[in-house]
User: Fold this.
Amino acid sequence: MVLNFSACYDEYKKLKEGVLHSRHWSVSNNSIKIVDNIIGKGVHKIRSVLPFHPSFLAGDVQGGSINLNISGKIVKINFEGKGELKLIESQYYPKFGCSVDNKHLIYDYNGT
Assistant:
């Protein structure tokens, strides 16, 4: 069974270049595919941020992929496109006044 759903965010249309962001999810038994589309005029700097829970163990970024160890299971994340994928140190805030080290997966793209 495959579940599909989509959403669109038009708040960026207020920008000079009028950008529209849509996202399509396709979920099956052992896979989640997320496709983002950014539509607008001109050149745009796009950043996708995926924060990880502190219990996730992240491997090294290799090209457009990274492996995570989540409760003993290996999860592979793939990014397609001409952007740059990197893993950065960050903070997770489970409650007020408390921070825990975690990582964020960042995908940066600059183009039309």
Summary: The longest strand covers residues 98-111. The CA atoms of residues 51 and 104 lie 4 Å apart.
